[in-house]
Amino acid sequence: MKAPRRLITAVALVGAAVVALTGCVYNAIPDDKSAAPSRTPIVEGIAPDLLPFYSQELTWESCEGADAGAYDCTTVRAPRDWDDPSAGELELALIRRAADSGTPAGSLLVNPGGPGASGYDLVADSAQFAVGSVLADAYDVVGFDPRGVGRSTAVACFDAAGTDAYFFDIPAAPRGTPEWEAELTARNEQFAAACEQNSDGILPFITTEFAARDMDLLRAVLGDEKLNYLGYSYGTFLGATYAKLYPDNVGRLVLDGAIDPSVPSLEVSTTQAIGFESALRAFMAACLEAEDCPFRGSVDEAMADLGTLLASVDASPLPAADGRRLGADSLMTAIIAALYAEGNWPILRQALSQALAGDPETAFLLADFYYARTPAGEYEDNSSEAFRAYNCMDYPNDLTPEAEAASQQRIAAEAPTIAPYWEGVDACAVWPYPPTGTRGEITAEGAAPMIVIGTTNDPATPYEWSVALADQLASGVLITREGEGHTGFQKGSTCVDKAVEDFFIDGTVPEDGLVCQ
Asked: What region holds the Peptidase S33 tripeptidyl aminopeptidase-like C-terminal domain (predicted)?
């Protein structure tokens, strides 16, 4: 590597959705919802060059494919370049589910993470799953696709066949050799060129800062004086950035599974590797207690056996029925996908048992879910493309060889099972545009209280990041969920859920440092 660009997609609900593969069924979305009326846009104090955007009157219509009457949808025009609002426009797609109470406290915007995950799809699949029944009763729940994502003006790169090749083809040269690095670099160059060719010039404007500016536009055109927002995972960085830019417009913000905005990309990658190793060890400890666990002995012995399996498929990939081959990188993707939630551990046991027997099908099922790939070989969304676009623009490329070497040594020492497959080449080194983002603490002085939730063994956004963000925010309040998996709200802790609901419903701010089991 260049380990810093091996950032893992931080999507709060990806793990929960994998549980559906095991047969769990969510509550049906209620129908018979009346479309909520539009409210007058909030334009006070808006600069003249932005008034054409902030003064938009929204036209809500029934959503295509959604339950009749349950949802309504619209699009919002936003400046392509917030630094030059006259330089064209792009569209943002919104879906809204009216408050069950019929008397909403306002809009509650939701972002599931990524960057690149669809808030539109999250709410369309089930607003109650996105925010819980209590909040769905009190608020108009609004899902949106940030710029570059999904139904909004979107990043586009390869077709399905090209995406398959990019994600799953195994390099011909041995791992770690100069020839291997050259092959991966060439693939990244082809991917970046396809994104530039097919994205209609939007790549330099796909940044978290511009997405946060979009959120203030959404707040205003939805008719809300203040922003109420529930952001999961990467959505915490989006929410914190909003608070930095618009502290006076902060209403009730909950940031669940936080990213520390001060951490550079190299440290993000290093900490994530160690976090997933820790989660993998927790999985292995539980696996060894299960009758269908394919491993035996101590956790250390089982982790060593898993390392042997990874090395084996790296040397001799397992052929799948669709012609793909399961190598170590795809198997590691499957493992990571399953570690997002403790409820996924049974399917991970199944995937590893089958892989040990030479069958890659369940491992590919998990890897395909991670990439939003269907059994037919199509891709349901552009989350991977948008993820790359945001990260390549958000993270400064300020690496040094000394820092990289230290990172690799730490990963090897603290994440020995994951380490051999964490390294790669820096995909952002060949991105068509240089990064514009900066890394630094966010204090958001003057903002209303904001809740930050951290889970103690969260693999994707390690707990220390939530502690750090809550400390940085001048009005940050930390809630700790003791447990496994990614994010804390609606993960089985009544303590966390009640604190979040009380905050959104009546503004009750929980005690800073509240610990929930």
From this structure: 423-516
Active site residues: 233, 458, 486
Q: Using the structure block, give the residue that is written with the tokens 């959404």.
A: 218
* Amino acid identity at 378: E
Which residues face 40 on adjacent strands?
none
Phi, psi for 298 (deg, rounded to 5): -80, 170
**End-to-end Cα, the chain, rounded Å:** 38
Please give the Cα distance from 26 to 32 (Å, whole number): 19
The Cα 388–Cα 381 span in angstroms is 14
Q: Give dist(CA 30, CA 9) in Å, integer.
A: 31
Of 391, 387, 513, 511, residue with least CA distance to 454: 513
Letter for the amino acid at 54? Y
User: Quick one: residue 168, left, alpha or beta (phi over 0 = left, psi -120 to 50 = alpha)?
Assistant: alpha
Q: Which two tokens stand for residue 271?
A: 């900490």
Dihedrals phi, psi of 389, to nearest 5 degrees:
-60, -45
* In the block, residue with structure tokens 């440290």: 267
Q: Which helix (H) or strand (E) holds 413?
A: helix 401-414
Q: What is the largest CA-CA distance in the chain?
A: 69
Measure the CA–CA gap between 81 and 427, rounded to whole angstroms.
Answer: 24
Tokens matching residue 245: 């830019």
What is the 8-class DSSP label of residue 373? B
pLDDT digits (tens, 9 = 90+) for 423-444: 788 999 999 999 999 999 999 9
Which residues, in sequence order, are CB contacts of 425 under 8 Å at separation 6+?
1, 2, 5, 181, 184, 185, 188
- Which token pair is 295? 């491993």
Q: How far apart are CA 255 and CA 467, in angstroms?
A: 12
pLDDT in tens, 238-272: 999 999 999 999 999 999 999 999 999 899 999 99
d(CA 8, CA 29): 31
Give CA 99 to chain center in angstroms: 26
Residue 52: partners with Cβ closer than 8 Å, 6 or more residues away: none
Residue 190 neighbours by CB distance under 10 Å: 16
> What's the rounded Cα separation, in Å, for the pair 484 and 281?
11
Into which CATH architecture does domain 14-154+207-262+441-516 fall? 3-Layer(aba) Sandwich (3.40)
Rounded-to-integer distance, Cα 425 and Cα 404, Å: 12
Residue 36: per-residue pLDDT: 53
Alpha carbon distance 51, 45 (integer Å)? 10
In this structure, what is the dihedral angle of CA atoms 361, 362, 365, 369, given to the nearest 10 degrees? Answer: -160
Domain ranges of the chain: 14-154+207-262+441-516, 158-199+264-387
Q: Which of 222, 214, 205 is nearest to 92 (CA)?
A: 214
Residue 267 has a pLDDT of 92
